[in-house]
Design a protein that fits this description.
By secondary structure, the protein is of the alpha+beta class. Helices cover 28% and strands 31% of the residues. A hairpin with a 6-residue loop joins strand 7 and strand 8.
Amino acid sequence: MLRFAASVMMVSGALLVADAVLTLTWQEPISAIVAERNQAELEDALADPPRRVIEQRPLPGDAVAKLEIPAIDVSEYVVEGTDTGDLRKGPGHYPETPLPGERGTSAIAGHRTTYGAPFRRLDDLDPGDRIVLELPGGQISYRIERVTIVDDSDRSVLRTVGHDRLVLTACHPLYSAEQRIVVFARELS
C-alpha cells in the first residue's frame, strides 16, 4: 500500500511539474483546450450571426469580430463582454466602448497565459504593425501607433480621441495582474 501511495504521489508531482513548465513556456494547457473548443463555436456563430449582432446590439458572449494580428500570429474570435465567462471564450470587447466599426475608441481585452493566451505576445508588437478586424459587415484595418504599460486601474486608455482607434489590453507582466499592457492602433482610411 505504501508503494502504491508513493507511486501515485510521484506521478502526481511529475504532472504538476509538467503543467507548470507548459504554463511558463506556452500557456496553461487545460484552459487552452477549453478556449480552442469555444473558438470553434464562435467561428460558427460569426459565420451566421444573429440579427442583433448585425444591428450592433450584441449580448454578452456573442461573437462580434475576428481579430487578426499577423505580426504575432493571432487569429481569434472576439466576444462581447469582458467578464470572466466571456474571456474564457476569447478576447472580449469592452461593452462601454463603441463596437469596432463605430466612431470612437473600441477596446478589446484578452488573456496572456490562460484560455488560449491570445494576447500573450502583445509586448512583441511594434509601431506600424497591422491589426485587422473582420466584422459581419466588412473588414477594418488598423496600424499600431504605440504599446505602453499602465496601472491596472487606469481607465483613461479607453477614452475617445480625435480619430477612430482600437485599444487592446491585457494583464502585465506575464503571470501577474499588477499592471496592463496596452496597444493603441489607429484605423486606416
